[in-house]
Amino acid sequence: MDKILNYVKENNNRYIEELKDFIRIPTISTSSDYKKDMNRGAKFVSEKLKEAGLKKVKIIKTEGHSLVYGEWLKAEGKPTVLIYGHYDVQPVDPLELWDSPPFEPVIKDGKIWARGANDNKGQVYVHIKSVEAYLQNIGSLPVNVKFLIEGEEEIGSSSLSAFLKNNHELLSCDAVLISDTSLYGEGIPTINYGLRGLCYMEIELTGPNRDLHSGSFGGSVANPINELAKLIAKLQRPDGKITIPNFYKDVKNPTKKEKDNFAKLKFSNRKYAKELNVKELYGEKGYSTLERLWTRPSLDCNGIIGGYTEKGAKTVLPSKAAAKISMRLVPDQDPKTIAREFSKYVKSIAPKSVKIEVREMHGGYPVVIPLENKYLKAAEKATSKAFGKKTVFTREGGSIPIVVEFVKQLNAPAILMGLGLDTDNIHSPNEHFSLKSFELGILSSIYFLNEASGL
Amino acid sequence: MDKILNYVKENNNRYIEELKDFIRIPTISTSSDYKKDMNRGAKFVSEKLKEAGLKKVKIIKTEGHSLVYGEWLKAEGKPTVLIYGHYDVQPVDPLELWDSPPFEPVIKDGKIWARGANDNKGQVYVHIKSVEAYLQNIGSLPVNVKFLIEGEEEIGSSSLSAFLKNNHELLSCDAVLISDTSLYGEGIPTINYGLRGLCYMEIELTGPNRDLHSGSFGGSVANPINELAKLIAKLQRPDGKITIPNFYKDVKNPTKKEKDNFAKLKFSNRKYAKELNVKELYGEKGYSTLERLWTRPSLDCNGIIGGYTEKGAKTVLPSKAAAKISMRLVPDQDPKTIAREFSKYVKSIAPKSVKIEVREMHGGYPVVIPLENKYLKAAEKATSKAFGKKTVFTREGGSIPIVVEFVKQLNAPAILMGLGLDTDNIHSPNEHFSLKSFELGILSSIYFLNEASGL
What we know:
2 copies of one chain form a homodimer.
Chain A: H1 2-24, H2 35-52, E1 56-60, E2 67-72, E3 80-86, E4 106-108, E5 111-113, H3 121-138, E6 144-150, H4 158-166, H5 168-171, E7 175-178, E8 190-195, E9 197-206, E10 212-213, H6 214-217, H7 224-233, H8 256-264, H9 269-276, H10 289-295, E11 298-307, E12 316-317, E13 320-329, H11 335-349, E14 355-364, E15 367-368, H12 374-387, E16 392-396, H13 401-410, E17 414-416, E18 432-434, H14 435-453
Parallel strand pairs in A: 3-6, 3-7, 7-17, 8-16
Antiparallel strand pairs in A: 1-2, 2-6, 4-5, 5-18, 8-15, 9-13, 9-14, 10-12, 11-13
Helix pairs in contact in A: 1-3, 1-14, 2-3, 3-14, 4-13, 12-14
């Protein structure tokens, strides 16, 4: 192990130079202008996997951008770890807000600044270099390893999703290792073990068959905006509880252990409120902010529109009003069941004076890996050792659909070993990634593969 | 009187030809392209007033389009009637929906088809010809008459409003006669004696200081759309009553006589709902539809916007949401007081978790002329005689600010002797005006001046 760790130290500068080369390829998946660069990106990843010492490396063509697959399966009788990441990046606008060109990486203040430095090139490269350190020094890995690096994460992972459905055997594994989330704070080793799901709906109310003059008609006929407001207001009680029947039926409350863990994170409501510039936080009574964000479902209007919305005044009683409403779900809520219950409920409370249309937009399952899971525990040990600090366990309010697909379809736990920080400007100008995190990430990966070997 | 009535009959064809000439001038006040035509329109009116026999006729320049003033004040000891109307018209788009060119009047099915045929050239011309019939046959009028015909009614009457403020003496009168509203039904003589007022407000709620990801933040912080919906929902009780404190304090209920009148109009809820294509009407409990429209205040959202409103789904927890909300007012509600009460109330019910901004957009006073008013009674007799039917009294849900200004500033009742029909397509393609209404309108005007003489 010392040999491997020394190798990492000695080769750190080379790693960074290679990462810079990786970053210089503008792999913006959403724009067809970068099709060639996307191919170059996939090529780069496959080359580096080969250089690391993996034997069976291939670029898999899809309807969209290519997948890169590589494997090393000679650890007979040992578990298999599937390492997932992505080589595509977000667009760079607004360009004028960048302090240096987005695809010309700069080292400054112990960080590497560029688009993709963090999300996800920096974080995925950690694992390639960890595997290289093993294979180049001792010629073997303590576990079997599969790499699956995609090029469509920023645009919905649809090609990977299709590939996954048809390749359960190729991708079969005991755990999925992913570094694409955040540390709870700088220098704090963090394992994320839960994601919320999503149920996204659209409601449209129609009142009169045309826009009316609010003077000539006001008071005689239902106004769809007023009715939509009443309907939305009825979706939550004053204490923040969602009123849809059976909504909480399948919700699993956080365990005592989880609540204790969250309490230890010393989350500051005051700091959080100040950062968002609100006088008071709001949410379901009886739960702390972290509990609400990570372990409780929520309901938010994501958009609303109706009538006259330009400057000035127009006395219209509109024909239509519409809202987009999404709910974040937690285990074991089922997005399909929730969509059905939502639809039934809003139709039941809409007054006869308006017509209502309810549309299901999309959904995704929530996931939680039990804290007792042995791969989670291995990741805890590994990151704690690498960072020299006690590892914290977090969950996440958002959804990462592809992660849930891995868990459900491969029947394997997802180990979210995030290395970035919430303040690293991923998806924004001046994205960056700490070189310290990069180095500790490589060590975490090395320790994790070693720990997993004993399971 | 017979001589006068015969004259009207004999000259009817000439009247219609003159009206056609009037209509042919494209007096679109909102577009600067028609400035010359606006001047021609004012000139036409002043010529016709002179030809009718009025002596002191003048075109009054303003900051906008000219006013035309004319008077005949030789009926010593008799009341003075101010006749108001406008020579400007609405734009004509969409042109392709017209069956014949908008400024080339066509006679078809007993109607005259063209922009302005009804609103307001046809209706104002009625009074010019009524006065002509008197002066050309007996050389005098039974009352004193002042004409004030403006060119900015379709764009807000701002020049007239300024002129009115400074010319109370010139315009002083005992009643203002206006034909710019509708008959309750075809062939039914109608006097409108009330208009609702208006208080138009805007609310903006700000939650977090920026748009947030609804996954990462949903459930931890107030969503301004959800809060705006709750706030709007709180403005009305389930029975339709508006909850703003003191809102109804100055509201005068319709009198027994009025309620009886409305009941006699045999308004059909079923037909009304069918025409608007709604299953059920909605409004304040305890009042009929006409009572709600004409005698009760109302509250409508005229517009709402927040978050993502394009096609598809975006998981945003927005920073802001805004709504335009207007209230129609009835005597003796004061728009300024209502704006203050509204603002105070919504601020008091907004939760601390959002910032609220309330803006007053504009307002206007309601007006009702008591049914006992002698000029209303004179108008009732006159129209009943002309149409050969019992006259009905209506009120109107909308506001006509300049009418209220006349009433308040000149301290005179407004007699709204409308001659059009709601189905006459004013402001739309294929505007038209019944030639029968035109003729009966002239008779109504003649009888009214005669009736007013005895007051």
